[in-house]
Structure formats: structure tokens, C-alpha cells
Amino acid sequence: MNKPSNIQSASCADAPVLKERGQREVFCGLTGIIWLHRKMQDAFFLVVGSRTCAHLLQSAAGVMIFAEPRFGTAILEEKDLAGMADAHQELDREVARLLSRRPDIKQLFLVGSCPSEVIKLDLQRAAERLTEEHAPHVRVLNYSGSGIETTFTQGEDACLASMVPGLPKTDARELLLVGALPDVVEDQAIGLLSDMGIGPIRVLPAARADGAPGVGDNTVYALLQPFLGDTDAELSKRGAKAIRAPFPFGEEGTTAWLKAIADEFGVDEATFDRVTAAPRARARKAISQAAEALRGKSVFFFPDSQLEIPLARFLTRECGMEAIEVGAPYIHMGLVRPDLELMPAGPTISEGQDVDLQLDRARAARPDLTVCGLGLANPLEAEGLTTKWAIELVFTPVHFYEQAGDLAGLFSRPVRRKEILAV
């Protein structure tokens, strides 16, 4: 295994960050709509963009056969882009037609794109105007999913951040879980916390607008995803208190995340152990079985989803791998420091991307496993490198104890496949 020589430090939290600003290989923030529209049952995401935006969403989401999807695209035509038509009037007309046909919509998100930002279409003003027009039945919000400055998971961050200022105020002491997870995984998290006697527990985003959580000085929140930096900032502005911990990937991360919340709410050690002992044991066993092919192997992360740092912590600490480089599109140090503090020193920590330079480093290192986006995976496979599609780590349930073995399996399968093919 090849490994770059780095300044040795106690942990990765003390390591210098290599910052690169060059050509990137990432999806845009519109992609987040694919999981958000499934999570928020009475919301609709209207992308104000081009036909390319529409094709991206249709390709990413697949064909919706049994239900009409809760997203669409208001197409900007050539006359809109050339300033020959009043885009605001056309947008108002499209929204009115949508809401008349879909009375179930309670929240409407106007999602900015590269074309709408290039022509300086003011969707914030449009959202305020349309909220006044359609209140109280529908609330209209806006956020940017443009690929000009965002990577794909930032779409969720921008969406949730746009919701926070309008959340009702509450003085109740409540735990707020922040981030969109599959329902079955969210239920597991709430079940574990409830069994410890922690509550009330609220979730952002809520499944429906009338279930939106309140926020106030007594709200305590825990992030479920490491890419929610803007949402974190908005919640802090509302006076809520953050609980910082490693993110709940694997047995170790899940236990540390739960323990930080338990300590905040005064849960005693006996109760914590009683609730977590059995699922922790199952998680350790599942990880051990799935990670047999990973122990002693090297891994290289290209920046893609902002999950890279917690996942690298999981692979190095729980699966016996050695990280060569851990690249992330953006590093919210205040959010991922607990994960970095657990990671053994050695790997290069990089933020941003200059794809040609990073490809050179990966080719020189020849890692046993390369985690990267779809656009890089096939070329690297052709060069003999084993790859893992980073986007699968976002769309697959991987949080908390019961999914820990599946998470390890996502990384071990391509390694096993290569070993089998080599026989």
C-alpha cells in the first residue's frame, strides 16, 4: 500500500487541510429533491430551470408509475432567457395552475437552478409574493439547487435552512432531530431515544406542514447529516442549542451520537446500557462479518457527498482500513470535528477539488478501494482501480445500529468482487 507522507499529529483534527479550487466532478443540488419529495408528503418542489434540469430529475428519480410525483420543472424557454418575456408573470401563472390541480400541496418550494440564477430571477421575492397570494392554504419558500456553487447534498441543506426562519416559536424543552432519513431508520432512532426516556422528540423535516416543529431557546438539536451547515447556522440564530457528536454511522458513531444526547438529557449509564446493549452487539457482529474483506486495505475518497469524513472514520476505526486521502466538497469543521478527533492521523484531508491533481494522487497511491462519483468510477475501473459509487451511500439506509452491517457491506462488495474475478 502506498501512503503519502504527512505531518504526524495526534488525530486528523490537528492535520492541515489541503484546499483545492479547480474543476469539480459533482452533481448539482437539485438531486436532493429526489429524497426530500418522498419525505415531505404535502410539499411540492418546482424547479425553475431548463429542460436539462427536468431531464436530470426524471433520470435520477426514475418513472413514477403509481403516484404523481411531488416535483416538476417550470421550463425557462429562450424568450425567458433573452428577457423577451416577464418570467415572474409566467411563474405566477404556472404556480396558480399547479395549485388548482393539486389542492393537497401545503408547502411549495421554488428551487433555483443555474439558468434562473444566470438571468437573476428573484425567486425570494417571488416566494414572498406567492405566499401572500395563496395564504393560508399554501406557504411558498425558495432555495437554490444550482450547480454553479453547490454539490448535491447541499440541496437538502438549503431546503431545510429556508424552512427554519418560518418555524413556530416554542419555549418547550424538546429534542429536534435534523436531517432527512428513510422512515424506518428515523423510527429506529426515535425508538432508541424514547426508550431512554428522552422526549418530546421532533423531526425536521416533518412529514407534513402541520407537524412542523417549533424552535426556541429551550430547543436542543442533533444533526443527522454532516452537510447541514446552513441549517445548523439558522437554528443557532433561533436560539436552539446544538449537540455535537460523531455522526451515527457504524456502532461506534451511533453509540457516541446517542450518548451525547443521553448526557444532555441526564440519562443514567444503566439505562443507556440497557437500551443500547443488544443493538450494539448486533451491529458489531454484522460489521465484523461484512468487513472481513476490508481489513488491512487502503481507501481513497474523492469529494462528493460531504459524508466522506464520518465514513472514513467508520472504515478506519471499525473496519480496519487505512485511509490515504479523505476529500470532501466542503468541510464544516464545527460539525465534523468529533469524527476527525477519532480518526487516526495519517491521511491527507482535502477540501474542494482540482480533479486532475486528485486523479494524479489516486493513481500514484493505487488504493485498494476508491470512493468517487459516477463520472470517475468507470474510467478508474478501466485503469484497474476498484471503485465504490459515492452516491449510493446517500440513497441507501446506512445510519444507526441496524444498518451498520449494510454500510460495511457497501464497501466490501466491490473489493470481494475484484478478488473473485481475479481467481
UniProtKB/TrEMBL annotation:
Catalytic activity: chlorophyllide a + oxidized 2[4Fe-4S]-[ferredoxin] + 2 ADP + 2 phosphate = protochlorophyllide a + reduced 2[4Fe-4S]-[ferredoxin] + 2 ATP + 2 H2O
Organism of this sequence: Thalassobacter stenotrophicus
Keyword vocabulary terms for this entry: 4Fe-4S, ATP-binding, Bacteriochlorophyll biosynthesis, Chlorophyll biosynthesis, Iron, Iron-sulfur, Metal-binding, Nucleotide-binding, Oxidoreductase, Photosynthesis
Name of the protein in its database record: Light-independent protochlorophyllide reductase subunit N
PANTHER family: LIGHT-INDEPENDENT PROTOCHLOROPHYLLIDE REDUCTASE SUBUNIT N
Lineage: Bacteria, Pseudomonadati, Pseudomonadota, Alphaproteobacteria, Rhodobacterales
Cofactor detail note: Binds 1 [4Fe-4S] cluster per heterodimer. The cluster is bound at the heterodimer interface by residues from both subunits.
Protein family per UniProt: Belongs to the BchN/ChlN family.
Cofactor(s) recorded in Swiss-Prot or TrEMBL: [4Fe-4S] cluster
